[in-house]
Amino acid sequence: MKGKTFHMEFLREKDRDTGVIVTRLTDGVGNSIHPYFTQTIVSEDSKILLIESTRSGRWQLFSLELDTGLMVQLTDDFNIFPHRSCLDPKKLIAYYWDGRILKSVDLHTLKTEEIYVAPPGFHTGILSLSGDGRYLTFVYSEDLEMSTGTGAQYSQMLEHLYRRPASVIMRVDLEGERIEAVWGEREWISHVNISPVDPDIILFCHEGPWHLVQRMWIVRADTHEIYPILEQKRYLERAGHEYFTRSGRIVTQYSVRETPRSTEWTFFDVIMDTDGTVLGKYRYPGPSPTHIQTNPTEDLFVGDGAFPTPDFKDGRDYIGLIRHRDDMCEVKPLCHHGSSWLTQESHPHPIFTPDGKNVIFTSDREGVCNVYMVSVIR
């Protein structure tokens, strides 16, 4: 029920491998996750976290006070999609999809407003909010019936890629109440992110296996210009899980191999300007994490994987801290996350709190998804 409150008894345990204290923030009632790692989901003062949970029977939004454990149910809707919500960290307004309806909810008053309705026959993507809280961007993409799904993650990805669904990137002016189409094409568009420093710059991807697409693109909302960044050699190079840092730089995970049949990839972090200029390229000693994020001062990274050496065992089961030294990634395990990776919801997706003091991640290591927090060792 909207407005219902819960008190989370935070469970603190010493990590078995690194000795750091890991705090379980949620209580295992239903599945609880944090929204997607590329979006703003923690208040500016690092005290309130936006959570998506099925504890009430279906996916709803909740706020969680990180100092008191007070959790408040923010929504009571019927068709909320996990991972697609975001939070205005200053105004404390959450934005989310209820089916095709874009809504907002005020964390203080619980007032809900309808902002936009996507056209029928299309599904909607992750929401991205500009740094000033004025603009909201997203994509809607054609609903297509697939024939190759097995129930496993990504089993329909190739078919989806080759079907080339019609996709349109939208930008909503939340102050001027203007909604505009920024770009559209018959390509599978996903991962739309608006620059935190220039709301006319929107980063998006052509979805699909990373080595089969030109992944990253920029569109300017003011001119509708479009151009690729980090241009790839198909079959040999791949990039993905791109995001903006707080200063407006773009970070992506990149890898390269010598031949299309080779299974030996070399992994890097790449940092770019929005014009595509590469500002830094840093090689991992072994495999890279699946997802990474940057701290507020942009001198430390966190990832859901940690391979400090090429032969480090079970690195996929760790949250790792990453520093860029010269042209290398220096990797150190922070804690064991132990998630199964069996569903999108169980992906750890680690992020920093805005004060840079803690890392928050998701794991289903206790049988259901919970949200965890660990202090960062400097």
Note down, in words, how this protein is organized.
- This protein starts with a strand and ends with a strand.
- 43% of the residues are buried.
- The longest helix is centred in the middle third of the chain and has 7 residues, at 157-163.
- It is globular and about 55 Å long.
- β10 and β11 (112-117) form a beta hairpin.
- It is 2% helix and 44% strand.
- It is mainly β and 378 residues long.
List the helices and strands and how they pair.
Blueprint: E1 5-7, E2 11-14, E3 21-24, E4 32-33, E5 48-53, E6 60-65, E7 70-73, E8 86-88, E9 93-98, E10 101-106, E11 112-117, E12 122-124, E13 128-129, E14 135-142, H1 157-163, E15 166-173, E16 178-186, E17 189-194, E18 201-206, E19 216-220, E20 226-228, E21 237-244, E22 250-256, E23 266-272, E24 278-283, E25 292-294, E26 301-303, E27 318-325, E28 328-336, E29 351-352, E30 358-363, E31 370-375
Antiparallel strand pairs: 1-7, 2-3, 3-31, 4-5, 5-6, 6-7, 8-9, 9-10, 10-11, 12-14, 13-14, 14-15, 15-16, 17-18, 18-19, 19-20, 21-22, 22-23, 23-24, 25-26, 26-27, 27-28, 29-30, 30-31
